[in-house]
Predict the structure of Alpha-catulin.
Amino acid sequence: VSSSSSSGLGADAGLEIRTRSVEQTLVPLVSQITTLINHKDKPKRSDKTLQAIQRVGQAVNLAVGRFVTVGEAIANENHELKEEMSVACIEARRAGETIAQLTDVASLDHPESDSHITIFTDKTGVVKAARLLLSSVTKVLVLADRIVIKQIITSRNKVLATMEQLEKVSSFQEFVQIFSQFGNEMVEFAHLTGDRQNDLKDEKKKARMAASRAVLEKCTMMLLTASKTCLRHPDCESARINKDGVFHRMRLALEQVIEIVTDSRPNGENEMAPISIYSGIKEFKNKVEGLRENLYFLSKENLSTMLEVILEHTEDFTDSAYTSHEHREHILELSKQAKMELEQLVSVWMQAQNQKTKDLMEDLEVAILKTCQCMNELKREVHSAATSLAADLLKYHTDHMVLKALKITGVEGNLEAVAEYTCKLSEQKEQLVEMCRLLRHVSGTEPLEITCIHAEDTFQVTGPQIISAAETLALHPSSKIAKENLEVFCEAWESQLSDMSLLLREINDVFEGRRGEKRVYLSLPRPGKHNANLKALKPVKLDTEEQAKIAKLGLELHLLTSDVDSETEKWEDQENEIVQHGQGMSSMAYSMYLFTRGEGLLKTTQDLFHQAEIFATEGTKLASALHAFSDQVHKDDKPLLLLEAEKLISVCKQLQITAKASAQGKSATFTKVDACILKTRNVMTLLCQLLPLCFKLLRKNKAGNGCLKPAPPWKEDRIRTGTNAHTPERRAETLGIKSLENHVTNMTFLESK
């Protein structure tokens, strides 16, 4: 747990915490213990301080007692974990009692006296008890988490067993009965894995889980129609191939889910994802720029090898039949230039190692800048090549002409025409697979890379399945079930093409400096969710002239969102509530900027006004977090922080009033749009000043003397809201972790005021 490191605290190094629920459950405990450990540096020990220490110590002991009671109940229900869980519970209870004894200081006249061992006389004892407590509580949580994993494995095994029955059935009646059971089991599996996906800390694993669950969701319907087609036409080879393909894909997806959940690979294999050009360039530039700080930390051979690997990957573009001649020439030219720039850099770098003169260091700086600029241009060129190809292909295939032709010729029983169109679909599949491979190189984040790989697999597998389904229909043109089966596979293809458009937009967002998460979709208005008194208003869009008028303001807003993103990325703790609210506001402001260009998911002025209201509410929540944070900073810094928080509340209220004000007619509506964007810009300007201030105060606070402070309330809020969001109450007690969370979270109810 990161927040424990500053006090020398830490859970057992052998216990890896993989989920947010376990990590966040430990946050209040770490905060309270850190409060106790840091008390000694405070110069004055008033009665109020002594009472606060005692209250915190007692709170820790009481909460640990309740926590252990739940842990012991879980142990009794799960015999395979009973022994380990019982030992951890005993250790936790003992450590909690020790902390309570050492903090029993409020009633003593001289707490520093050696006659009574307390937190003041035995600092080592407190640290030791704290370490034992964190280690044992973490162990209980990780053991409880194993129960969740066991539930997912058990659920997967039930699904697999039922799938085997479905594969062997020979009558419709038997199939319907078993498929009904299969459907219920898949729903349970979807719930369990959905909760797990949301709980995973590793974004890469989360993306892999999402991809596997998407396969299972789509394949469930495919399995139904493919199996029914096979039962209706038992002697049809293409129907059997079609069905076998679905079952095989589902088994692979189920296996991948278990690999992610148990963090294991078959036969002990390591997962080796191919390096993308984007990540290769990023790493290369980091190494080059590192020469400013240290001329000796890597070898010239190391840098040369890194560049060679990047340039080898550019061959995926230059060798592709779908890369335009212009892009191919530019990529080859930039590759040649990159080699030359690196040669020049290495030459100056070697001289600087021998003789560190001012002129040589200036030459080195120039060589570093020119090398990085060349790599940026190469990155821009491959990005342009991949995204322009993707945009062209997606536009070309939006009419789904080949799929429509396959359906028509299949129903006609025209085997020759079906064969002709299956060739065209195979060509289309190759184009789309190549598009996914090139997009992966420029996707910018590991989750998006995984999404590209998933899309490539989907096209690779779905193409042949459509062909076998079309062949079956052509052989049995009057078969309703064969027709329905082809429809299902065609819909899966169309759905993946639609997903590619969203993926392309996200890749472009990352390239433009946006963060890699799907943050643009935060709190967007939904149909029927608007305020009741607004339903009568006709939603309108901005016309071209109005977009031109507001373009400058929109651009300013865009630049501010980039500044805010840069500031939030500096924070080590991306789960900090100040960072979360800042990122959320930046995301919403970006969607408002897109509206000024006639793009994005805000389609009408009413969408914009609704988004502005939510943006203002988010700003007010940030102000509350700032008030909470002010209790953690030095008293000399507190007035400035509170003043800035009040300014934020004021500008957010102004925006709220503007967004809610009525506007009748085209001119009044545009004036309101202009005012909303302007006031959103004002909020973002203030946010750009606030975030660096908070970051500075946080670092100052960490480097300071660490006197007694209460646990940060914003972390308490995240425990109460964040963890609940992913775990339905109906299953709270069965999951193990949830009931333990509640008891540790209750420790934060004390305020040391």
User: Anything to note?
Assistant: Confidence is low (pLDDT under 50) at residues 1-14, 516-538, 705-736, 743-753.
